[in-house]
Amino acid sequence: NEAKKHKNAVAYHDIYLTEEAKKRQNLVYDLRQAIDDKQIDIVFQPQYRLSSGELTGLEVLARWTHDQYGNIPPSVFIPLAEEQHFCEDLTALVLEKAAKQLNESQLLGNMVKRVSVNISAVEFNSVDAIARIDTYLQANPEFARYLCLEITETAALDDIIECARVVDTLKRHGVTFSIDDFGVGYTSLGIFNRINVDEIKIDRSFIQAMEKDHRAKAITAGIIGIAKGLGIHVVAEGIETRAQLALLKQLDCEYAQGFYLGHPAPLEQLAIVQSV
Ligand code: C2E
Ligand code: MG
Ligand code: MG
Ligand code: MG
């Protein structure tokens, strides 16, 4: 009886997996279609300089509204895109839309001096994908000089020498580089000796824990100190409260981004607050 129960459980599990697998397969297909049809949208989240409160830049974030399932978050479709090697095309689309919208709004170079775009680790470690970004930057020099490419620690981990080379190559076009979600990975601080980064973004887990957790606060303060010492920008991610903002100012954090300062939104809806 016990064995039978177990067998049923396994059988049920198989059906469940099959359904999940089917749904996933459809999602992959739909994602490919959405990228090809340029149905992936972008939103922009503002970044501010804390000392003056002025707007300094915008981060571009991809959005996918599925006909059937509605809004599918990047935490779902970005891993799918990575696994299916769709990231190259996704990045091309994100860059194209961001450049077009920012140029039309005439914000670029006026209110907006920096545009940050996320590059996935999978893409960053692909020779073909990098060649394509290189070609794009070469063809769009006036946009390139406003661009900041955000990579994660994992992108650098695979082959730090190759990563350093890619960063230097792309920087010739005027782009800058940021290490996103800094502090959650396993990177050693030696990364700063090897890779010529311009910015680090402190992961929001530290920012959100820092009021109650003295370790998170010490880590945040330490990252800010390292960035200052290296002469690179430091951005705090995920500020949700006035108290977090006050604490970051107290720690002399240079830049900040988060729901408290501004939610990601389509450019035409983005009530760009020039200063906070
Ligand atoms: P990320 O690059 O670290 O982007 C910041 C994420 O935090 C965004 O989530 C943003 O909406 C969210 N966020 C901003 N402020 C707050 C806050 O105060 N509180 C909280 N809880 N969250 C906040 P989103 O848009 O869901 O994107 C998640 C991740 O997906 C991004 O993390 C990035 O790694 C990836 N992603 C998004 N768009 C793209 C893209 O175009 N290409 C690639 N390769 N990855 C992307
Ligand atoms: Mg980012
Ligand atoms: Mg981040
Ligand atoms: Mg992230």
TrEMBL record:
Keywords: Membrane, Transmembrane, Transmembrane helix. It comes from the Bacteria. The keyword Transmembrane helix applies. The keyword Metal-binding does not apply. Residues 24-276 form the EAL domain. This is Diguanylate cyclase. The lineage of its organism: Bacteria, Pseudomonadati, Pseudomonadota, Gammaproteobacteria, Vibrionales. The chain holds residues 218 to 493 of 493 of the full protein.
